[in-house]
Amino acid sequence: MNERERIAVNIHELIAMLRAYLPEIICWSVFCCLLLVCYKEVYKKPTFTAETSFYVYSRTADSDYGRLDVSDLDVSQQMAKESLGVLRSEQVAEEVLVNLEGDAAALQTMTTFDLLNMTSVQKQDDSLEITITASGSDPYVVCDVANAYRETAIRELSERLMARGIQTAKVAVIPLGPSGRSSSFYGAIGLFLGLCSSVGLITLLYVLRHAERSPEDVGEI
Predict the structure, then answer these.
(1) Beta-bridge partners for 179
(2) Fewer C-beta within 10 Å: the chain N or C terminus?
(3) What's residue 64's pLDDT?
(4) Domain limits, CATH 3.30.70, in the chain
């Protein structure tokens, strides 16, 4: 026979201990909250996002019918898929840099590597819409980049894929505020983590020091 300890946790005693340490729990939770808020404000730079999009059609609608038939839509769907590879290439990025206009220092020193890192080109599976998103620390720069990328993309696709019916769906505008999580979100996460960690530590302290222990025989099989 082997002997081991049986630990009995008294819920009322544990709750009483948590109440006794309530000021410490509150202080630690508030500290974690302020810590993450400071991290967001000081170390995490705000990111602005500008978005533009266009539809890829193989041709314009006929004047007699005013619409595209099924075969036109199938061809347009294939062109939209192929356009993703074209628009993500360094050659198109170089053309965008040539067409970028502005006095901002970021535009003057931007490379194709920087441009491709700050932009994304996406398409939903069943859609003919291509979305170009630019992200960065300057709201004016990301707006200029997104619109220049769209204009260059329309020209390149018209020449390379013979897509004659491309239509702009949305023009990028200067973002009014940063994207991503707000400081209050980081504060709430810090408050939650502080609460969980402090309650967990006090519970562990109770089990190690105050929980009732009794020997228990364990038979070997």
Answers:
(1) 47
(2) C
(3) 45
(4) 48-170
